[in-house]
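[step 3/7] inverse_fold.run input=structure_tokens len=259
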């Protein structure tokens, strides 16, 4: 059998209305609509060749849908994170069990905290947002456990947003979608930069898979900038997920079953 691409996702908890919020005001979330939008997101992953593995969630996990924060999955190994928001640590066992068949697991431990949403890999470089959720010890631990695999781990300052991936994501080989108010993209070296449209501050979180970018339909001006740069965007309505301060990268962990 050939290689298969797995997307681990997790059910929208009925408790999502009580999700963690840091920079956003609470707005009413329609749970049914959130679930429909999440199913559409999963269908989109399937259309791009992923086998979706959806984990169940309980009422004790308001932020369950944001699986990305719970692990950093690399070809060689998966590092189980230790979310900065204590309530989110309840999400760890389910995600770790789902990853176990595919990767050797390493872990971030006390006093380190790390959210997967703060981690961007560019080749063998890992950039980690120094954020509300990720501390120096978390970054140092990641550095230490990944050194044997040849990864270079570097902290990046961010301001005004929850995670590094709220401020910047990769949208094509060597191309970054950036909100310049939240991160200084020079730290990533020589890259092609697409800036979010100034009227769309939340617009830097995009999910790049092969030749496509899954992207919220709420940011048409930034979408146009990407399209002008030759990027094929698949717009999705993720309004309810956005109210929970999550983006499109947050809702999946994507990995090859046989790296
Ligand atoms: C939280 O505050 O933890 C969730 N409400 C949102 C997490 C979004 N995750 C991400 O950007 N990777």
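[step 3/7] decode complete -> sequence:
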């Amino acid at each position: 059998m050939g290689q298969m691409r797995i997307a681990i996702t997790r059910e929208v908890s009925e408790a999502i209305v009580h999700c963690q919020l840091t920079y956003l005001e609470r707005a009413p979330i329609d749970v049914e609509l959130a679930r429909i939008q999440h199913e559409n997101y999963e269908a989109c992953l399937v259309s791009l060749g992923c086998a979706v593995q959806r984990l169940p969630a309980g009422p004790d996990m308001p932020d369950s849908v944001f699986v990305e924060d719970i692990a950093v999955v690399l070809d060689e190994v998966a590092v189980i994170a230790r979310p900065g928001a204590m309530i989110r640590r309840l999400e760890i066992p389910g995600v770790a069990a789902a990853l176990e068949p595919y990767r050797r697991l390493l872990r971030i431990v006390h006093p380190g905290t790390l959210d997967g949403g703060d981690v961007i890999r560019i080749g063998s470089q890992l950039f980690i947002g120094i954020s509300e959720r990720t501390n120096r010890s978390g970054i140092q631990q990641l550095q230490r456990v990944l050194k044997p695999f040849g990864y270079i781990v570097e902290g990046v300052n961010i301001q005004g947003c929850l995670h590094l991936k709220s401020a910047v994501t990769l949208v094509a080989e060597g191309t970054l979608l950036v909100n310049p108010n939240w991160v200084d993209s020079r730290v990533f070296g020589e890259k092609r930069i697409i800036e979010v449209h100034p009227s769309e501050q939340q617009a830097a979180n995009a999910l790049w898979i092969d030749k496509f970018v899954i992207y919220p339909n709420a940011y048409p001006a930034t979408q146009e900038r990407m399209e002008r740069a030759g990027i094929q965007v698949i717009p999705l309505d993720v309004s309810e997920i956005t109210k929970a301060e999550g983006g499109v990268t947050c809702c999946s962990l994507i990995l090859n079953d046989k790296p």
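[step 4/7] annotate
The chain has a mean pLDDT of 97.
The CA atoms of residues 178 and 185 lie 7 Å apart.
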